[in-house]
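Repro:
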Amino acid sequence: MRQRAPKRPAAERKRLILESAQSVFAESGYANSGTEQVARAAGVSASALYRYFPSKRDLYLATLRNAGPRLQALWAERAQRSSDPLEAIRLLGQEYYDHLQGRSSYARLWFQALGDADDPDVRDAISANFTGMVDVIAGLIATAQARGLARKDIDPRIAAWHFMAIGFTFDLVHHLALDGELDRARVEAWGHLYIDSLREAPHAPSNDESIPAQGRALPVRQPGRADRPGRGGDPLPQVPASTPDPVGEAHGGGADG
């Protein structure tokens, strides 16, 4: 007589249901998915599924609320492996791109969920997911600032949303089957460009050589005195007055011809 497979612990069974639900909802969306599909994918009966989640909507919301923290925990763990917080951010972006190329159900799940964002509970779950990821990246940027590795005139949270916008572009390009637009070499170059925009320059300008930029993700520099003619703050040379032309307009002035 065939022996029954040992019964899984409740926590493991719930985890399998949520992981299977993520794949099913990512593939078909909420409206076109059924709890029976999820139960089959998880290897449980429909009645067992309903013991954990009373309705399809409850299962969907639990799936959304579970997916975000899992990625955030993974990011936090990966970030601890690098001594440079900015390099950790670059590697996280690169790994996310590589993950997408493996047909990640995670990214597709959130794209599907955006179509259901009129539901306040779905919208809250999506918002919590993205703000949670912003928290991780902003924290790494703030740490880099504290260590003198990142510019002080950058708002960590705005810069973190910039990082998220790059990731969202990866998602969009991938889901539209436009991967040729962003191959790995271009993604690596983009990552270095983003990180370089955050790094503290080896010789930082003094306060009077840059404009205040609080709240700015990518600061705009004005040339310092040393960059101007007459180095060291010397007066600029006088420009001789132009001689009026026959129609009474100075050379170089007036409207374009």
